[in-house]
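Example complex used in Figure S2.
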Amino acid sequence: MKRLRDFFQKESCQSADIARERLKVMISQDRMQRNQPDFLPRLQSELVEVIRRYTQSEQDDIQISYHCLPQRSQIELNVSWPRNLP
Amino acid sequence: MARVVVVTSGKGGVGKTTSCASIGTALAMQGHRTVLIDFDVGLRNLDLVMGCERRVVYDLINVTTGEAKLSQALIKDKRLDGLFMLPASQTRDKDALTYEGVGEVIETLKEEFDFIICDSPAGIERGAVMAMYYADEAIVVTNPEVSSVRDSDRIIGLLDSKTRKAEEGESVRSHLLITRYDPERVEHADMMSVQDIEEILAIPVVGVIPESPAVLRASNQGVPVVHDSDSDAGQAYSDTVARFLGEELPMRFTELERKGLFSRMFGGRR
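Predicted assembly (356 residues):
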C-alpha cells in the first residue's frame, strides 16, 4: 500500500520525511551542545585567535571538539597550517 | 505514595493546559485524589479550561508567601469530588515563586493527594524549570511538527539535568503525549507519524490525541474534553490516563478511518 502511494506521489514532496531528516540532524546537534559549559564558545574563539597569531592557519584548519567523559571533560584541539617551502 | 507529575512541552500552544485538565479530571474520575497546580505566572489559564475562573480568590504565590492558607487557595472542582486546583498568580512578577516555597506546598499536598499535576508554562526558563523541579514523572506534550518536537527534546534534556531527581542521580520517568494528530495527513506523508516522533525523542508514547473539534468546544465551555465521552479526543484522553496508570491498551484514532460512500455523504462530524 505504501509502495503504491509512493509510486503515485513520487512527484509531490513527502514533507514528513523531510521533517524527520531535518529533525534528526538538528536534535543531534542540540544534544551535543546540551552538556557543554557556557564558556566554551568564548574559549574556542580565544584559542583560535591565539593560534592564528603564530600560524597561517585558516579558520577551517583549527578544529576544536568537546568530549564529556565519565569523570572529566576534555577538549581536543587539531591545528594545521601551510608549510613554508623554502 | 503521592506522585508528582509535570505536564510540559517547551513550545507554547501545543495543548499542555488542555491535557493537564483532562488528565487530572480522568484521574479523579477513577477515584484518585488529584490536585492541579498552574505554574504559568502572569498567564494563568488552567482555571478557564477547568471552568472555575470565577472562584479564584487566592493563588499559588499567596500560599508560598504566607498571605493565604493552602486550604483557602485550593478550588474544588464542581463536577468531581476528589479534584482540586491551585491557580497561578495573574498579577505578580515571575520571580515571586521560589523553589523553597513551591517545595513546601508540594510536600503539604503530598499528604492529602494521590496525584499532584503541575501545568508548566511554555519555554525553558525559570518558570518551566520550577514546574518540573519536584516531579517524579513527566508528560511531554508534542505536536507532530518540527519546532514542537525539537523543543520537546530540549525539555527532555532539562528533565534529565535540572530536576531534583536528576540531582539525586535518579531520573524522571517521562511519557510522550502527541496531540493534534491527523491520521489523514500522516497517510499522505504530510505529517510525521507516531513512530517517527517516538524514534526521534526516544521516550515511550503514553497517548495520541487526534485533532478534534471537541477540544475547542470543551475549552469554550470550561469543561475538560475528557467529560465528552462520545468524542474521539475525550476517549483518547481516557485511554492515555489508563495507560499512565499501567493498563496496556492499543492506540486508537491513529489510523485513517476508511469512510464508505454513505457516511461520506451523510456522516456529520462528531
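Residues 15-34 of chain A form the longest helix (20 residues). The interface with chain B takes residues 5, 9, 14-17, 19-20, 22-24, 26-27, 30-31, 34 of chain A (CB under 8 Å).
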